[in-house]
Amino acid sequence: DDIVIFATGRPEMIKTITERWLEDIADVPSPTVFYRKNGDYAPSPLIKVQQVSKIIEQLKNDKIEYGSVFFVDDDIRNVKAVCDAFPRVRGLTFGTERLKELKGEF
């Protein structure tokens, strides 16, 4: 089975809004999302590396087998940081304009 997990730079305090948006835009019911801690202003690439590390650790701890790992982000700096930190991870980037095209609005 495929596993979709989201890592966001959004703070935990807007969790409800973010998850509603993901359910609408990505058609993912009850998404698993890793958030930035409230008040954490570290650079986004650092946050994303930390989040991916937590995700991989959680999968290992839960003994969940997984195949390919793709990290998708609209910021190439985040993709580069994650792929540099985790050579097994494949990185993809996209622009928010494409999402607007797919859903009609953002």
Task: Please tell me about this protein's structure.
The chain has about 110 residues and is of the alpha/beta class. Helix content is about 45%, strand content about 20%. The chain is built from four helices and four strands. The chain has helices at about 15-25, 45-60, 75-85, 95-105; strands spanning about 5-10, 30-35, 70-75, 90-95. The strands form two sheets. It has a two-stranded parallel ribbon with strand order 1-2. A two-stranded parallel sheet has the order 3-4. The chain is globular, with a radius of gyration of 14 Å. It starts with a strand and ends with a helix. The mean pLDDT is about 85.
Summarize the structure.
This protein has 106 residues and is α/β, with parallel strands linked by helices.
Features:
106 residues, two-stranded parallel ribbon, alpha/beta, two-stranded parallel sheet, 4 helices, 4 strands, globular
Question: What order do the helices and strands come in, and which of them pair?
Answer:
Blueprint lengths: L4 E7 L3 H11 L6 E5 L7 H18 L7 E5 L2 H10 L3 E5 L2 H8 L3
Helix pairs in contact: 2-3
Structural class: alpha/beta
The percent range for helix content is: 40-55%
Strands of the widest sheet, in order across it, are: 1-2
Tell me the fraction of residues in β-strands, as a range. 15-25%
Query: Overall 3D geometry?
Result: globular
Number of strands: 4
Tally of helical runs:
4
The rounded Rg comes to 14 Å
Unreliable stretches covering 5 or more consecutive residues: none
- Beginning-to-end CA distance, first to last residue: 29 Å
- Reading the helices and strands in chain order gives EHEHEHEH
Mean pLDDT: 85
